[in-house]
Please model this.
Amino acid sequence: MNVAESFFAGDRRALARALTWVESGLPEGEALLKRARGRGRARVVGLTGSPGSGKSTLADRLIGAVRERGQTVAVLAVDPSSPFTGGAILGDRIRMMRHHKDEGVFIRSMASRGSLGGLAGATVGALALLEAFGFDWIFVETVGVGQSEVDIARVADTTVLVLTPAAGDAVQAFKAGVMEIADLIVVNKFDLPGGDRVVQELRATLEFAPPRPAGWQVPVLTTVAATGQGTAELLKAIEEHHRHLEEHGLLEPHRLERARFEIASVIQALGLESARGGDELVRAVAAGELTPRQAAARLVARVLDLPGEGRQGRA
Ligand SMILES: Nc1nc2c(ncn2[C@@H]2O[C@H](COP(=O)(O)OP(=O)(O)O)[C@@H](O)[C@H]2O)c(=O)[nH]1
Ligand SMILES: [Mg+2]
Model:
């Protein structure tokens, strides 16, 4: 069997291979993605929050809770902050290691910023593959600090913002615009001092937040991921949100948003790749011989290998 056949037969090694293809932007990955599209019906849950807030530990607990019900789960840990060292990712791996031998659990780390398709595009592609593979749940762990992480959170069905009682954590999230995309807020490390105050602050802030689709009220939950306290309630709240999406016909728009996001990230990657070449066009723009738009059109056409080189002559 080739990799694609093995993938559709449910072989996890083939899944790992396919993910590498997608991550590296290889055409084989694109072909498989096209076939895989639209299969599966996973619940996609984004876990976002600052480094160290306990996302991986929480994911580990959620894996446990999901597995107790006999459902399968994949975790995609995205760490854009360390493309070279992978240090944080190693930590994530270790935290979820106890599920290592469990056939119903698949954990994958990605640190692919800079590869063709970009971090964001590769991540959403990976999501599509995991979904097609048939997992019941997919957790995507991202660091909620940059725009692309916010975007990834946006394409999840349910986005969980993980905060801690640490001073300023909520303020940071608010500033980064992550608060607005959170469907659920979790104050983790509730064993540390200051938790009650943060919960109160969050609830007060949410009073003034813009209304959410179909009247969803963002709940503020508390967990101690280190001991597992509150994780069953968290999973229940995630399911409640999923039901809300279902009841109001909001799941399909999410799926479309995911596809739109993939297209946008390809365009972005093409743009970056284009901008690397074309010194003579750069000089032409600086000299006022071409508009930036004209130069951009030529560069993009070059990357896409369009037969439109002639058309640019008119530009
Ligand atoms: N006190 C306390 N520590 C926690 C809790 N949850 C996680 N931690 C610790 O916080 C650190 C960062 O956790 P991690 O899951 O890697 O955070 P991530 O960077 O958001 O994935 C680790 O040392 C965890 O053991 C908790 O509920 N209470
Ligand atoms: Mg982590």
Notes: Residues 251-276 form the longest helix (26 residues). The radius of gyration is 21 Å.
